[in-house]
Specification:
This protein is mainly alpha-helical. Helices cover 88% and strands 0% of the residues. It is a multi-pass membrane protein.
Length: 199
């Protein structure tokens, strides 16, 4: 490898770290914002998205380990823990969303939740694009995969946003629980991919 190639690779690795730390920081703040919004609105979807953000923090840490060259075994163990986290999230959301629909429990409107999920969707889409480009340039499948997870996180934020808007603007209280089911589907898909070794 030439000096120029090495310098380019180091620059790309630094960019990968920056993207992961930005994702990590956003999700740490997001857990607090979403907890406040979920409690105030009694929203299953916001609570589930907050738990998803906690799991995404774990995913970012796994990629940071990998970029640091911390070893394949440690990364594999980290991914399995993330898989268990997604499985628990799916069970929680399935039970909660079903209970909400069965009892007719109506969440309140959530301007904070609407604002946060709208901005989060935009931020996650931008971070996902950066990770895809950087992961491709580095030929790093872990960063590329985590970029797809970040893209899905943006799509989930959009799904939760839609549920909140339908509840707030059209009075469709069940849309919050429906958004919870979207998160269940995503979580189960992640569990299957992780334990099948797709990551």
């Amino acid at each position: 490898m030439t000096g120029t190639d090495d310098a380019t690779r180091q620059r790309l690795v630094r960019r990968g770290f920056a993207l992961e730390y930005a994702t990590l920081g956003w999700n740490v703040i997001g857990i607090v914002v979403l907890a406040v919004a979920a409690i105030a609105a009694r929203s299953v979807a916001l609570a589930g998205f907050g738990l998803d953000s906690l799991i995404e923090i774990g995913a970012s840490i796994v990629v940071i380990w990998e970029l640091s060259g911390s070893g394949e075994d440690r990364r594999r163990r980290g991914l399995k823990l993330i898989g268990v986290g997604f499985a628990l999230l799916a069970v929680y959301l399935l039970a909660q969303s079903t209970w909400v629909l069965a009892t007719g429990f109506r969440p309140h409107h959530s301007p904070l939740g609407i604002g946060w999920t709208a901005v989060t969707a935009a931020v996650m889409f931008a971070l996902a694009a950066g990770k895809a480009r950087t992961g491709t340039a580095l030929d790093n499948p872990v960063l590329q995969t985590e970029g797809r997870v970040t893209l899905i996180d943006g799509l989930l934020a959009a799904a939760v946003l839609l549920g909140l808007l339908l509840n707030s603007l059209a009075g469709l209280w069940w849309a919050d629980a429906a958004a919870g089911y979207v998160l269940v589907y995503y979580a189960l898909r992640e569990v299957m991919e992780i334990f099948a070794g797709a990551h």
